[in-house]
């Protein structure tokens, strides 16, 4: 059975040991707004409301969007535009496996090139992360891993004529626990449709290390 938005919010709040009243205060919304968000009484909640709820619950906003629109029938895939092609040039910063500290804010920069015959206009790079939820036999939610949190889930791509190479920057905050984490992104057009549905897209993959251990495994002396 698919979990609905209300059930997820209530369970997530219990796991974080916060009441719905506290959730509303920290998210800057009223109880009425929260109830309307999960009951869909009349209209969909604003994106700002969902983002505030998600950050208070320490989950990615796309998780709430997935639950909100989970029963909606998706439109047919838009066919690729003939002559529209892109190429990955390289990682300008933070190549795969780069070390970062827990809670550190860093900026990932990719370089991509328009190798097609169609100019890129009105396009964006959109985060495709989603939270994997696993439940125990008792029905309790198990937290497998924390995620990178992007400052912005949608990054505008500047007008790019054929042949031009551009750099795209995305700011992230690393989770507090050590481990390897990723964030996955794809290009969409002005209508929100994927430009290259079969493309692997772009990603950032970093390793979170403990503050007392260097990247080489040496114990650092504390002051």
Descriptors for this entry?
single chain, 223 residues, alpha+beta, 434 Repressor (Amino-terminal Domain), Immunoglobulin-like, 2 domains, 5-stranded mixed β-sheet, 4-stranded antiparallel β-sheet, 26% strand
What is the spatial order of strands in the main beta sheet? 2-11-10-4-8
How many DSSP-defined strands?
Answer: 11
Assign the CATH topology of the largest domain: Immunoglobulin-like
Instruction: State the helicity in percent bands.
Output: 10-25%
CATH class of the largest domain: Mainly Beta
| Strand proportion | 25-35%
Looking at CATH, the homologous superfamily of the largest domain is Immunoglobulins
Report the biggest beta sheet as strand number plus sense, adding barrel if it closes: 5 strands, mixed
Average pLDDT for all residues: 80
Q: How many domains make up the coordinates?
A: 2
**Segments where pLDDT lies below 50 for 5+ residues?**
73-77, 131-144
Question: What is the approximate shape?
Answer: flat
Based on CA atoms alone, the radius of gyration comes out at: 20 Å
| H/E series | HHHHHEEEEEEEEEEE
CATH architecture of the largest domain: Sandwich
Number of discrete helical segments: 5
> How many angstroms separate the termini?
53 Å
- Overall SS class: alpha+beta
GO molecular function: DNA binding
Domain HTH cro/C1-type: 9-64
Keywords: DNA-binding
Protein name: Cro/C1-type HTH DNA-binding domain-containing protein
């Amino acid at each position: 059975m698919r979990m609905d938005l209300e059930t997820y919010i209530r369970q997530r709040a219990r796991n974080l040991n916060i009441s719905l009243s506290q959730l509303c205060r920290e998210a800057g919304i009223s109880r009425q707004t929260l109830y309307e968000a999960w009951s869909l009484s009349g209209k969909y909640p604003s994106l700002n409301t969902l983002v505030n709820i998600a950050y208070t619950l320490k989950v990615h906003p796309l998780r709430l969007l997935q639950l909100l629109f989970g029963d909606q029938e998706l439109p047919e895939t838009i066919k690729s535009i003939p002559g529209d092609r892109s190429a990955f040039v390289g990682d300008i910063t933070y190549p795969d496996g780069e070390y970062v500290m827990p809670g550190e804010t860093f900026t990932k920069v990719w370089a991509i090139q328009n190798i097609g015959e169609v100019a890129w206009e009105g396009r964006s790079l959109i985060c495709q992360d989603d939270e994997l939820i696993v439940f125990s036999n008792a029905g309790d939610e198990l937290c497998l891993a924390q995620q990178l949190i992007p400052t912005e889930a949608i990054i505008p791509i500047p007008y790019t004529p054929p042949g031009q190479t551009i750099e795209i920057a995305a700011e992230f905050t690393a989770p507090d626990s050590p481990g390897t984490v990723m964030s996955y992104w794809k290009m969409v057009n002005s209508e929100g449709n994927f430009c290259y549905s079969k493309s692997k897209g772009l990603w950032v993959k970093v390793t979170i290390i403990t503050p007392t251990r260097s990247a080489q495994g040496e114990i650092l002396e504390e002051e």
